[in-house]
Amino acid sequence: MNLVQLSYRDYLSVEEINAIEHEVAILGQRQAAGIEAMKLVQKNRGWISDDCLYAVADLLQMPASQLEGIATFYNLIYRQPVGRYVIHLCDSISCHLTGFAQVSEAIKEYLGIDYGETTSDGMFTLLTNACLGSCDKAPAMMIGEDHFEHLTPQSATDILRQLCAENDKDELNLRE
Is 121 in the same domain as 66? Predict the structure, then answer.
């Protein structure tokens, strides 16, 4: 039973509820949709707040503690606010053997943050990831759904510069 009584109808949008119910219909069991439900809500809101977690748990008719266990295990569910771009830098042994340390230092220096931090402009959050499945193309990072492989300090910072430039362009288009 949830410690916090929060009706999903008061917190989740109709679109979120419908998308989650669609996942439940595909999977056949309400609780099996936990990860997908959190991913859907996170896509709309950027992260899973406590209220989001309790509302999803209510909708899926499962204990919030069980959903929290799933959220903390699955490293692509964010339980605190993150930047517009979340950088997952792979720190597997393959990446360590092929230049992870130099790429990591270049990214941290360029952004002015360390792991688990977000830039002051809210643009980037830097996280490590145990494996991105790119061992033969290491070092690697993932930003959003995009994978970048065979990284060097220069190529990694060029990718971040490009994202900054695209963001600046988007900002100009919004103002016009």
Answer: no
Q: Two tokens at 60?
A: 């899926």
Domain limits at 16?
A: 8-73
Q: Name the pairing type of β-strands 124-129 and 141-143.
A: unpaired
DSSP 107-170: HHHHHT--TT-B-TTS-EEEEEES--S-GGG-S-EEETTEEE-S--HHHHHHHHHHHHHHHHHH
Q: Is 52 annotated as a binding residue?
A: no
119: CATH: 3.40.30.10
Q: Could you read off the pLDDT of 3-12 as tens digits, one per residue?
A: 556 789 889 9
| Residues facing 88 on adjacent strands | 127, 142
Question: Does 33 share its domain with 91?
Answer: no
pTM of the predicted model, to two decimals?
Answer: 0.83
